[in-house]
Amino acid sequence: MSNSDASAPQRGRPTVLDRAAIATEAFRLWAERGYDDVGWKDIAEATGVSVRTLVRHFARKSDIAWIGVPAATRRLRDALDDTPEGSPVGDAVRRAIVASISDDPMMPAGPAWIRVVCAEPEIAGTAPTAYQPWIDELARFIDHRVPGITPAAATAVASGYQAATFAALVAWSEAGSHERAAAAADEALTWLSIPAP
């Protein structure tokens, strides 16, 4: 798609954007030049999508870093919804989190993505907002499955699992391991538990 095609969409028709391709190019540019040295124009030239279209779809440049989180949240929700009623909560949570992790190197939680997210304060600063729907899904499940837990406690536990998962993925990325990201997270999460009621 040329820049002129992207900047002149037909009226009344929604713009279809290959968000994964945009993220791939943005991460490539950020890795080569640094996050602060890559502007909207650079991303537009690399992707063939106009600056105007990019800005319409991404309120901030840092939003590009989080495009994989909604899909991860859907995978988490689907895995939680498929959990048999009698399954131990801790095991169900761990399996669902592992199911939510993508093997795409530019999506959460590939090594290239993790390096950029950790290195760039602007991106890291938007992580709490980006991950809130994922945490909310996990908290909903915990609240439903753990008798007596308060919604605040369920959210705290879910937030702890999110932080532990991200820490495991950072360690995996830094180690240069050849194992899958999901396997690294699975191994780390076995050390966490939710007490049986």
From TrEMBL:
Protein's UniProt keywords contain Repeat: no
Superkingdom of the organism of origin: Bacteria
DNA-binding region per UniProt: 39-58
Ranges for domain HTH tetR-type: 16-76
InterPro entries registered for this protein in UniProt: Homeodomain-like_sf, HTH-type_TetR-like_transc_reg, HTH_TetR
Keywords attached to this entry: DNA-binding, Transcription, Transcription regulation
GO MF annotation list: DNA-binding transcription factor activity; transcription cis-regulatory region binding
PANTHER family linked to this entry: HTH-TYPE TRANSCRIPTIONAL REGULATOR RUTR, MYCOFACTOCIN BIOSYNTHESIS TRANSCRIPTIONAL REGULATOR MFTR-RELATED
Protein name per Swiss-Prot or TrEMBL: TetR family transcriptional regulator
Species for this entry: Saccharopolyspora karakumensis
